[in-house]
Amino acid sequence: MSQEGNVFAGFLKSTGDLAKAAGDMAQATASEAGKIASTARKTVADAAGQAKRTIQDSVSQAGQIIVHTSSQIGDVTSHATTQINETFDEAKSQIASTIAEQDEEAERYAIEFLKKVLRLRAARIDREHFLTTELRKKAVPKRVIKQAIKERPAVAGISPTVLDAIAKESIAFETKKIDSNVIRGWITWRFCDAGHHSSGYHAILHSRLPHHAETCLLVRMAIIHR
Q: Are 170 and 134 in contact (CB under 8 A)?
């Protein structure tokens, strides 16, 4: 082979080697690019999965917070309602207790006042003696007087007019014997059953309830029954 042919053959061989080297390089580059792309896809998928899990966890935590908050609100509301009910019951109990104490105090005062009044000498009246004396003054028969003492004047059939007259006269007499600074006429109406007549003294002999007249303050003969 001539020298030119050898040079040309060497050129071709060099060109083939270059082409092969270029092909190998291209193949290597493509393979590396594929690996990079695969890694990138995996990284993106992992990131998306992590983001999804993060969102799900956040939603779950938010739901738990809402449930817990609702439970706390319910507990606070229930506790407040219970406290309000307890406060109301306590206030109602205190009011009832205060009213009861005031009633007891008023009752004790009235009883003590009655005792003091009835200790007065002028207030000590014997029922039988009083009825006998006063009814005799009105010319009431003995049989009727006995029945009036045994039962009550009204039951014995004594006229209301007679009873009213005795009551009025007795009150006028007894009032003079009591210090006006201690007991005054209005006490009769206040403490006796004055509803049956317009004036309180009628309660002496016309008391609506048995023994009620026994609590009458002004009229010492208040032991008379209806």
A: yes
202 DSSP assignment: G
> How far is it, in rounded angstroms, from Cα 96 to Cα 100?
6
Confidence (pTM): 0.32
Q: Indicate the number of domains in the chain.
A: 1
Domain that holds residue 204: 121-215
Closest by CA position to 128, among listed 44, 223, 26, 6:
223
Q: What are phi and psi of 208, to 5 degrees?
A: -70, -30
pLDDT tens digits along 19-76: 555 556 656 565 665 666 666 666 656 666 676 677 777 666 766 666 666 666 666 6
- How many residues in total does the chain contain? 226
Each residue of 92-112: pLDDT tens digit? Answer: 777 777 777 776 676 565 556
Tell me how many degrees the CA angle 208-210-215 measures, rounded to the nearest 5: 85
> Is 110 inside any structural domain?
no
